[in-house]
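Schema walk-through. Below, the input block comes first and the output block second. Nothing else is stored per chain. Lengths vary across the set, and this one has 252 residues.
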Amino acid sequence: MTAVTSPQRAESHSQHVLQQALSFCRRHKQPFALLAIDLQELKTLQAEIGEHYIAPLFAQFCQQLNNRKRCEDILITTRSNQVVFLALPGTHADGADIAAGRLLDWLNHHEFRIDEFRVTLNVRIAVHVHSGADNEGTGRLVNDTLKLLRQPAERGQRILSPQAQRQQSQQAQAQEDTQQDEANAPQELSDALLAQARKDGLLDTLTPLINALDESARLELVDHLLDASTRTTSTAKPYGFRATNTARRGAG
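--- output ---
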């Protein structure tokens, strides 16, 4: 892009890049999120600092945002300069929400310097995600994200689309299920081994497992068993072995 590139051509180029990124994510079954940053406050600032300062302020905002984003993220400006889009390829709703929160935190604590003015931008950010449907192209994705900004919300807030909220809920449920499965796995294995030991005997149950271990693991297991045996009380009966009165007969 050159300095004489028209806003129309720049916007067309950005849409083409967005289409390519979305196509890539769909082809590889990767998520895709889109943020819309509401810069309506620039209208208010125009009356306070002067119209001729708005363009440099907007350019500074875009430049610093471009420096903060990941290399794969796509910054898209519009002709009105009232909304800036940030596309996040490979990002689920959770990641997009976190990214939006970090941007808001940065803007809340950052001052843009325009001559003698120190300006803080209070924005809203809409968070939307692609559904994965073949008929949802970039145009629909952008329009659905823009519609979120019509909702009443205070400055400095995030607005999540129903689609993003649903994906967040699904991610949270999947993570909870995974954690539950991981927590249950050791107990399930222990229960299965005990059940088999009651049926086949302890040695018959453990022998195939021990044989499957490499030498170092078997030696480590032996060390653990020896250590456990030294701490076993004299009245304890090893699982799977019947107590005999041989010693008692010998003593008699």
